[in-house]
Design a protein that fits this description.
mainly alpha
Length: 90
């Protein structure tokens, strides 16, 4: 079943996700400590996962939901590896 969502809502979602991505990127680059950079990277990957979900809904390509799930799992494991490295080294 397809639900028609007005175009201005799609535009608002894409603008909000874009602004959030820019802010997370700035946090990951400028962060004063390595922990802040790791948090910025984790935020960026979470926002990107949400963007994949929005794209799946927009294009009615629900295979992108599986892609976003795999991306979320891999980014979680990556952030765990970074956190472990920052905590006491690999």
């Amino acid at each position: 079943m397809r639900i028609e969502i007005p175009q201005f809502i799609w535009i608002a979602w894409f603008v909000i996700v874009s602004i959030a991505t820019i802010l997370a990127t700035i946090r990951a680059i400028v962060g004063p400590t390595n922990s802040d950079r790791a948090v910025g990277l984790d935020t960026w990957t979470t926002i990107t996962t949400g963007f994949w979900v929005i794209l799946a809904l927009y294009f009615f390509q629900y295979i992108l939901l599986s892609v976003s799930m795999v991306y979320a799992i891999l980014s979680f494991l990556g952030v765990l590896a970074i956190a472990r490295y920052l905590e006491r080294g690999l």
